[in-house]
Amino acid sequence: MKESLRHIWSLGLKEIMGIGRDPLLIVLIIYSFSMSVYITAKAAPDAIDHAAIAVVDEDQSTLSKRITDAFMPPLFLKPVLLSRADIDHALDRGKYTFVVVFPPDFQEKVLANNDPEVQVNVDATRMAQAFTGNGYIQSIILKEVQDFVKESTAAPPVTYTAQALIRNRFNPNLTKSWESAMSQLINNIAMIALILTGAALIRERERGTLEHLMVTPVNPVEIMIAKVWSMSLVVLVATGISLMWVVHGILQVPLAGSFWLFMFAVMINLFAMTSLGIFLACFARDMPQLGILMILVLMPMNILSGGTTSQESMPELIQYIMLFAPTTYFVDFSDAILFRGADLTLIWKTFLGMTLLGCGYFLIALSRFRKMVAG
Amino acid sequence: MAEKPDTLPEEMPVVRMQELSLHYGKTVGIDRLTLEIPSRKLIGLIGPDGVGKSTLLSLVTGAHIMQSGSLEVLGGDMRDADHRNLICPKIAYMPQGLGKNLYFTLTVEENLQFFARLFGQGAEERRRRIDRLTRSTGLYKFLNRPAGKLSGGMKQKLGLCCSLIHDPDLLVLDEPTTGVDPLARRQFWDLIDSIKVEQPKLSVIVATAYMDEAQRFDWLIAMDDGHILDTGTPEALLTKTGCANLDDAFIRLLPEEKRAGHHELIVPPLAADDQISIEAEGLTKRFGDFTAVDHVSFKIRRGEIFGFLGSNGCGKTTTMRMLTGLQPATEGTARLFGEPIDGKSLETRKHLGYMTQLFSLYNELTVRQNLELYARLYDIPEEKVASSVDEMLSRFELNGVADRLPGQLPLGIKQRMSLAAAVIHHPEILILDEPTSGVDPVARDSFWELIIELSRRDHVTVFITTHFMNEAARCDRISLMHAGRSLACDTPEALMKARQAETLEDAFIGYLVDTDSGAAEAAEAAAVSTGDAVQTPPAKPDWFRENLFDFGRFYTCFWRELLELRRDKIRTTLALFGALLLMIVIGYGINMDVEDIDYAVLDHDQSELSQDYLLNISGSRYFRQRPPVSGHGDLDRRMKSGELQLVVEVPPSFSKDVQRGAEPQVAFWVNGSDPSTAETINGYIKGLHAKWQQSYNRKQSSPVQIGSVSVENRYRYNPDVRSLPAMVPAVIPLLLMMIPAVLAALSVVREKELGSIINLYVTPVRRAEFLLGKQTPYILFAFASSLLLILMAVFLFDVPVKGSLPLLLCTLLVYCILSTGMGMLCSSVTRSQIAVIFLAMIATLLPASQLCGLTNPVPNDGSIASVIGNIYPTTYMLLISRGVFNKGLWVADLIGPSLILAAEIVVVSGLGILLQRKQER
What we know:
The structure holds 2 protein chains of 2 kinds. Chain A is α/β, with parallel strands linked by helices. Chain A folds into 2 domains: 2-44 and 175-373, no CATH class; 53-152, abc type-2 transporter like fold, CATH 3.40.1710. Helix content of chain A is 66%, strand content 7%. Chain A contains 15 helices and 5 strands. By secondary structure, chain B is an alpha/beta fold. In chain B, β11 and β12 (290-301) form a beta hairpin. Mean pLDDT of chain B is 83; it is low at 1-5 and 522-536. At the A-B interface, α1, α2, α3, β4 and α7 of A face α12, α13, α23, α25 and α26 of B.
């Protein structure tokens, strides 16, 4: 037992020194945890952020102009006036996401309680903007119409209304960069953990050092645990630094929950991811094959684990499949801990699931690895 | 172009250098060499490993870029690119390493075809030349065998054939016989001799570490430490040093301090010890049909040095792997100290030291760190680790290099270090697999001194394989292996006596010739006359082909890459269908619709009106109601755990306040941790609230004007606002960027790592021909994959192509060229496969999925993200793909982005070609 621990410790140190001696790897790791996170966070505009909008005003009334003026930055760019004939062309070119059309006699009909119809054309290929923007446009039109009516009638009417007070918890201004910084960090954790372990194993196999280890009194479990702990530690430290300096420091994302609880979650996630990396490397015969395998695993994981779009609206089959992806739990976690400030009592189920999954991955990878070293 | 003489006049030196130096960082490769090499001779470049022989040869062939000094080869300056291009077809270069310039998955025929095509030979001429060369080398019957499955000797012969395919004036061979058995070596030199007879104009420069081979050269250059020790005919060198053989002569030529410590090696007799330490009985290993080791038996006594002699691939390594327990035997038994070998037993491993054929210690650790690591792995107690390591460092004379990385050390020192790592735990059995190949005579002798000491003083049983006959002669007993069988096993003297041979080499060759295959190969090589040299009719001058781009060579590179890809079934399958798989996953999985939002209510009012208000929400298809919230604590907990996305809190006296016009506030608590979902929820809430308000007011049928308006939404291009029609056209460009880029990038860097990139450096192929040739198969694969993606979009996902299909196809083809071009660009700045995978992924995944408008439009605010987004090709392909699929656009609408894409090809491919090197740096 004592000897085993010593083997694991020495082999793990060797892995870390190996990374230390490869300047390119270090540069890429640093890039992934700094620039990459930063650029992505900065690239994510708030869902409605200077949306391009055009107006076709066939009424040219006070009301239609008043509504047009209400589409203002920062939500919208200053509306461009179009003629009805230009609508299709403009939308085809992708110049505007929204085109609002006021019919002739719009104002008159409003005042006559005639229920005129304002048409909002939405470029629905821009999914993210389409829904949200539409809600905003609708409420702006209604508000302006009501205010207009109030002001233009001599006796202010009695309106029976309530106010909807929307409070966005955990991220009051819905700053998108918070979320995108985190999801990029999560994606990079997955990518780096996979590449580091997978490629290091293939390299050891190609250079013959792995075979050499097998004639020393070291068994495969020790080799694997050594790789898992060392690579996990490297990524863990990088993640911690990235979270505190880049995400919290430079990008000013407030962290609601416990940093250490989050790090613990990262650790368990890495345990699963590095095991997966070893598993893939056992399958791949060479680097090109490993490369493609990694793409085939990483891409769906990034897209489907809930970081990009919410998992609830995916088909059930995919939700079930994604239960086997460590990132699914991890995305849940980081949201809960970092943004919502949840503690372990609220999310222990997710924790348990992820730990079990990690153990499963480790055991499967170990059995593949054993077969591989046995030739 | 000025007419240059076709061949050099006899008296002119083939190579002339002055003050030629080359440094690798701080390490000296060669140092101010001044030398003239006579033409039309067989020149030997002799000297230990790592003294600059390979460096010199790579400069002479133009493979490595020059640093300082001057160098003329075949009558022209090697700094002049025009001259290099001119003489490139006249030089043939066979780099060091078994088959380094060959492609192992290709057959013998295909390898030869590749090189013949690169030199622009016609089909008939290629056939004639290939047949002639392979008949004379005995490779003819193996034409259809993959190069990777040839034995070491045959690989070297094939390498030679590939070099000779175009009748060079200068043939440069870098250690052509290292790792080749004596018979194959003899045949190889006979072949060179016959070629030399046939083509008297040919100059041959050979680097070798085998001094016994040097005897047959016309003229020798002895090198050490980047300097030239001496030059002259072998006889002249022998006379000058007064030695009987070149091995000794070389040692004599070395400076005093290097010779110090070298002395005649004497093997003391083996003390009688009858304890058997290794025993094999009928040991057999089969891989499928192939029998690698065929009933091998031997008994080795304690302290004995037992030699295994044979060519590469004769089963030596497999036998050793069975002895170490790395591989289980198919049949037969092997015992160590009377115990059967158990691969899983960690205990036996402690008694065993093993040194593999390749250097298999860690290049990223220093010598000392490597030894420390192995000391710990062999369970040497921590307090003794330092002393054990120190003992090894001084015993194996490694103190001077203890803190250096092995990668920078000469092979001889690396081998000493490997031996140190193998004996650090004082094993009783030492298994050494070709420990001295490629090591110079002095280093080899000192290595053997250590082995003899281990055997005689420490009574370690040594099991060793070697190619060197003088080393074999030092063993107590040797076993001659061929094709998996042991031909004979006895003391060296007894073997020589049995064959009545003067040397061990003759004895071995005698045994080999007795076996069928050896005899047949030898006979064939001897029998086939080499025939007349075929003269190439000079090709018609073609300015474009000579100066810019040769389609023949481009096609050759293309053809070769395609062949290799076709052999790799897994890579092909993934390249073609990987994107489809991802498309299915993403197509079904990605969903921007926000539905089934879990919400709960906290109704403080509990009135009819509040019920009415809440009904408005529960009736919406977007929301899914959960049990009501009991209070603020409950609200907080359930939102934090992620159970609820939204809580609607209706204030007390809501109903009363509405009616008296006090405008009560309904609070909506939204989970904002996922801002885009939250945005959508905000939008929904606003819409629902407004709707309720209007309908409520209408129900009151108040006589006053309230101003009514209805807003009608028209979701264009995607009336049902489903995610699929929006996502599918967008995902196609994303998938077509990443996979092709990674594959194309790896195809080049793989050649760099495996060494066959040398063909770019030393054959007439241009960078553009080479790179575009390699790129084209990946373009075709990517394009085929894009066709499949379109079919899948239309038939599986029901997303019809509404606009111009031809435009879509054309731009997709352009896009595939771009994505593979991105890969080529990545490959130009990297050397290792691990780095290029990293780089290609970072350079494609992040920009294509985040910055190019896949989910959010490309910003225009001058930030880094917007700059990348506006340059990156995926942005424009997305516009086109969405335009054609969703918007039903035609060529006229999309001409702008299409032209931008086309223009980017020039930039991406141009940069990729320019940044790639035609010479090694």
